[in-house]
Amino acid sequence: MICEMNNNDDSIHEININSRLRRLDLNLLLIFDTLMQEHNVSRAAERVFLSQSAMSNALNRLREMFDDPLLIRSAKGMQATPRARALAAPIRSILRQVAHTVQPAEPFDPRTSQTRFVIGMNDYSENIVLPELAISLHQSAPNAKLVAHTLTTENLEPLLESGELNLVIGVEQYIKQTQQLRTESWLKEQLVCAVRKGHPLASRQRLSLKQFMALKHVYPSPLGFRTNIVETWLSEQGLQRAIAVTTRGYGAAAQIISKSDYIVSIPRRIAERFAKHGPLHLLDPPQGFPGFRLNLIWHPLYERDPETQWLLAQVRKLPL
Fold first, then answer.
1. ∠ CA 169-152-160 to the nearest 5 degrees?
2. In the 8-state DSSP scheme, what is residue 284?
3. CATH number at residue 297
4. Which residues of the chain fall short of a pLDDT of 70?
């Protein structure tokens, strides 16, 4: 019973505090602070651009609020009561805290910032975007930290809303997002086909649909999906390719291709990097082959956040 009574007392106390706060006029605290500095109604009125009658009315409201005369006329002018003197420092402190809280956010300074930027990325953006962004931040924000969060099928909105993720860079078709989130279509990418050097079709520049369908395929599926934009494109034509191997990343797929007669369909920027360092030959895919766009996604809560907007600006200007 004692605990229940204490809980009830706490609830009543909180209700009383909220009730007093609803009746509080912050302007009155500013007027009180001015009166305590001037000890003169006329001079205080001039400082806050009020008429003398309005200032006198405000003083009466303050007296009612604090149940104390606050300032009393004497031979030496207006003198503060003990209650007024006790209130002066706390009220001055409150006004300073309020002024500090509502002042405009300080500009983001990348040169000194130690911000930890966490970006949701898929296998593509981690391979193509992350290295360039890391170099850019090393030059412009040397003390900042960059963390890649591997995207799954999770709901992104709570992660972006809480600030656990600053930004998501991913393919629209594979991301769960709501209309609440801000989305910017950013980077356009094409798919190309890759085979090993010496492959029977390596002398060609472009594959026909018939040649494409005759081969066995390696299917990179970073998110573990059983279908992707290629399957969707083929199914619209009543076709289904023969998938021999499914991998979770592009690197393993490239290794398999380099030592077999399989074929893989991967983003051009990824394929060109692999071809520089491995025995791969790139082929243009059949006419009408699909591509995709990489999107930038953030939460509207951070629409005017200096750090988030600076990060977006750095991503947008990457030399990709």
1. 55
2. B
3. 3.40.190.290
4. 1-23, 105, 173-174, 176-177
